[in-house]
Specification:
The strands form four sheets. Strands 2, 11, 12, 13, 14, 15, 19 and 20 form an eight-stranded antiparallel sheet that branches. Strands 1, 16, 17, 18, 21 and 22 form a six-stranded mixed sheet that branches. Strands 3-10-8-5 form a four-stranded antiparallel sheet, with no helix packed on it. With about 425 residues, it is of the alpha+beta class. Helix 2 packs antiparallel against helix 3. The protein has four helices and 22 strands.
Length: about 425
């Protein structure tokens, strides 16, 4: 009995021993596997990633601003009927260009011609009476000298002559008015420009009781563009003009970007600034003038005015695509000398031409930054720098410089807004020009 119990205890001990041994071996194998994975991960981490990079560079930068504006004709005239009558003819094509002095409308002249004839008859009648009165004065004057008539009779004749002379002047004035009114039956263009729709139909009675609008003409060349700028932007522009007036050729050059993003082929010039800043918006109204020989610009069009608002000397610039946003801050992925990547917080300045971004703080000229794939690379990664040989040329997108589209046949697209300060949207250091 005791021997049987002893044998059973030996069996239990052997089983327990085998379990302990199996557990130890399993733990050793797991540990070895973890070490292998860690080594593989470390090898993968240490393997350098090919990455396109550029060097931050320092150069003088012209910063452009864009402002939404609206075109306005230099002169707009309403053509009105100044005399009563039925509209007889319309002698132009609606929407066409008319020249100063062109005949536009005719009004039935019969009534005015009759008025002229009546006035002429009145003049002839009074003239005849005046001629007779002058003969009477001459004859009665001789009789008065001989004492054949009294002084009173002679004075009556001279008074009658004077009254008839006054009546003749009045009749001539009435004839002149009648002729002027007859002239109003022909309506001429007061200026060269484009004429709109006719506001009165042929056969309509016009000019009865008040002037009747017949059509409207707007001048076409040149054309104004009105826009607004922030007060501080205007002051910056004025100070820049005073500082750079002898050295900056582009102070007054302005571009116009039309609604289809096509750059208008003619450059404009600042024309004037309003006399006061709008206290409700803090903006100042500004007007530019653009040549319009091809009648491309129409009154009331919306367009963007673009020009240099700021010049930065020795600014640090990098491609816009290099900038990453991290937890509400802007940063660059900088490649250190050993090839590891560092996230560097930076302060952004204004946008520059050619899709470049000005960096005001956080990086120096010559430092290497990741230019492509910034969202795939993490700080601490090791990279193999591959310098980006393709520069950010103007591509009819953001950053297009004015010189890229100044010829008459230009059809390249304009850049998006380039602002002097990050907080500006439709405004930037702006302008007027002629400082009165």
């Amino acid at each position: 009995m005791a021997s049987s119990v002893h044998k059973n205890n030996i069996k239990v001990f052997h089983i327990f021993y085998l379990l302990i041994l199996g557990f130890i071996l399993s733990s050793l194998m797991t540990a070895c596997g973890d070490d292998t994975k860690k080594e593989a991960a470390q090898e993968k981490t240490q393997q350098a990633i090919p990455a396109k990079v550029v060097k931050a560079k320092s150069e003088d930068v012209s910063v452009y601003g864009e402002f939404v504006g609206k075109t306005e004709a230099v002169n707009t005239v309403e053509i009105q009927a100044r005399i009563e009558g039925f509209l007889k003819e319309r002698l132009f094509r609606e929407g066409s260009i008319v020249k100063k002095g062109d005949l536009l409308f005719t009004i039935d002249p019969s009534q005015q011609e009759q008025s002229v004839n009546d006035a002429k008859a009145q003049v002839d009648q009074v003239q005849a009476l005046l001629d007779k009165a002058r003969l009477d004065v001459s004859r009665f004057g001789k009789l008065y000298k001989t004492g054949a008539i009294s002084r009173e009779e002679y004075d009556q004749k001279t008074t009658n002559e004077k009254n008839l002379a006054a009546q003749l002047d009045q009749a001539k004035a009435s004839l002149a008015d009648a002729r002027i009114n007859l002239g109003y039956t022909k309506v001429y263009a007061p200026l060269t420009g484009v004429i709109g729709r006719a506001d009165a139909k042929i056969g309509a009675l016009v000019g009865k009781g008040e002037n009747t609008l017949l059509a409207t003409i707007s001048s076409i060349d040149p054309m104004y563009v009105n826009f607004s700028v922030a007060e501080n932007a205007y002051l910056n522009y004025v100070m820049r003009r005073k500082k750079d007036q002898d050295s900056s050729a582009d102070l007054n050059d302005m571009q116009l970007i039309l609604a289809d993003d096509i750059v208008y082929p003619y450059k404009g010039q600042p024309d004037m600034a309003d006399r006061e800043v709008d206290p409700t918006t803090g903006t100042l109204g500004v007007r530019a003038v653009f040549a319009n020989p091809d009648n491309i610009l129409k009154q009331g069009q919306f367009a963007k005015v673009r020009f240099v608002v700021q010049k930065l000397k020795d600014a640090i610039i990098v491609p816009m695509r290099s900038v990453v946003s991290f937890q509400g801050t802007n940063a660059l992925l900088v490649v250190k000398d050993d090839g590891t990547v560092e996230r560097r917080s930076v302060t952004l300045g204004p946008l520059a031409p050619d899709n470049m971004q000005v960096i005001t703080e956080g990086i120096k000229s010559g430092e290497v930054v990741i230019s492509d794939g910034v969202n795939k690379i993490r700080p601490g990664d090791k990279v193999t720098p591959q310098f980006d040989t393709g520069s950010d040329k103007p591509q009819t997108q953001a950053g297009t410089t004015p010189e890229a589209s100044t010829s008459k046949d230009d059809t390249s697209k304009a850049s998006s807004t380039q602002e002097a300060t990050p907080e500006k949207t439709q405004e930037s250091t702006n302008v007027p020009a002629k400082e009165n």
